[in-house]
Structures are given as structure tokens and as C-alpha cells.
Amino acid sequence: MVAVHGHRGARGVLPGNTLAGFLYAIEAGCDAIELDVLATRDDVLVVCHDPVLKRRVIRELTLPELRVPTLREVLELAPRGQFQFDIEVKSFPRRPRYSAPPERLAELLFEEIERHRLGPRAMVLSFDFRVLRAMRQLTPAIRLAALYHIGTRDFVSIARDAGAETVAPYHRLVTARKVAAAHRAGVQVIPWTANRPRDWKRLVRAGVDGIITDQPAALIEYLRSFTLSGRSPEGAG
Question: Does CATH number 3.20.20.190 belong to domain 3-232?
Fold first, then answer.
């Protein structure tokens, strides 16, 4: 069965990257909750998508100056289920003032994951492959996913470039041929961010391993409806 990954919790239902959104996704039965992390000036990882809030750069602020969840607070939700944490590290090679150096980001994240003993339940994602390579230098145990947005590269070459076991492409880049080639090479494919049944059906037919979505409860129900009826999305008309 395709795994359901709640994008920023459940961004289509509740504000993204909030504890309420993560709890909603967990209670809905998500296999994973996806979240974004940035580092503050005092090297605290906080959960936020945008590097600039109200015209102020998060990397130039300390934790007391912010009103967003910390990564530690989100990881403390772990006892509520057996779901996975998809932790996207936000890094901006062309705008270095927006983020800590990739090696430092990897160090901070590794320390936090280890503190909570969540290595087996964590997957680190990033568009900046430097972060993934730095994480791999720290540990071979935590899974890595290479995010990919624009282009025609095959998924296997992307995974090899990033040193990752998983590729997380924009969902419109997914084809059955690319997924099959990835699987033959031992690479998983988890696309983002698909929110419509027609896209879910296309992705399931392509053989993806999971789907990142703003509507996790709806996707769970979509997949369950075929399971209960004895059919599968692959055979849906």
C-alpha cells in the first residue's frame, strides 16, 4: 500500500507546520508527517517553511524572538504513534544569510534526532544536496531523500548525486518508467505535493512508494475505499 505523508502536517486543513496540524495528521493515521526546519541565530532548529517572517530573517533571530514550534517540540509527539518524521532541511545556497552552513544544519539535526532516539523513524529531505551529503558523513543509519523540482533527470542519477536512498520529486515529474527504473536500483520514490484524486490515481498506477499531500485524511480514505472493496487504485477506471 502507498504510504501517506502529511505535508507540513495537514496544510489543506490546518495551518502548516503547527502542532495542531501535526496532531491532526497523526490522528488521521498518516504514515509520516512532513515538516520544514530552519536554524535560528542561537542554533535552535525551528519548524517553519519560510526563512523570512514579517521581514525578519529567522537565521538572524534568537528563539525567544520567534513564535513557531521547535523541532524538539515536534519530535516529542513521537509517543503518539509509530509514524515517520520527514524532516526537510531548508538551505539556500544562493542566499547564505538565510540559513546555517549545510554542515552545521546536519550537525544540529543529527544531535536532535539522536537526543530523541528517533533515527529509525526519521528521514531527512532537502533540495540542497550538500545537507544530505553532510548528514551521510555523520551517520549511515538515517534515511535521506533528495527533493527535486524542475528538470528531466532520471530518479536514479538524482539519488546517486545526493547520496540518498529516496527521491522526492514534484509529482508531475513522475512516470511509471522512472519509478520502475528507480526501484530496480533500490531507490524509493515519494512525490510531492499531490492533492487531487486524479493525481493520486496516476501516482499509484506509476508505482510510487508514498505520496506527500496537504490532504492526508482524504488520501487515506481514498486508498482505504479500494482496499475495502477488494479493488486497488491501479485498476480504477
Answer: yes
Count helices and strands in the chain by DSSP H and E runs:
8, 11
What residues does each domain of the chain span? 3-232
Which pLDDT band holds residue 228 (cuts at 50, 70, 90)? Answer: low
Q: In this structure, which long-range contacts are made by residues 140-144, counting pairs with CB atoms below 8 Å and at least 24 apart in sequence?
A: 142/110, 142/113
The answer to whether 169 and 156 are in contact (CB under 8 A) is no
Is the pLDDT assigned to residue 237 strictly greater than 70?
no
**Residue 221 phi, psi (nearest 5):** -65, -40
Name the one residue in this structure whose C-alpha cell is 520544514: 36
Residue carrying C-alpha cell 536512498: 165
3-state helix, strand, coil in the chain (%, to 5): 40, 20, 35
Contact indicator for 168, 125 with CB cutoff of 8 Å: yes
Strands (E), 49-106: 52-53, 56-57, 84-89
- Which residue spans within 27-111 are E strands per DSSP? 32-39, 45-47, 52-53, 56-57, 84-89
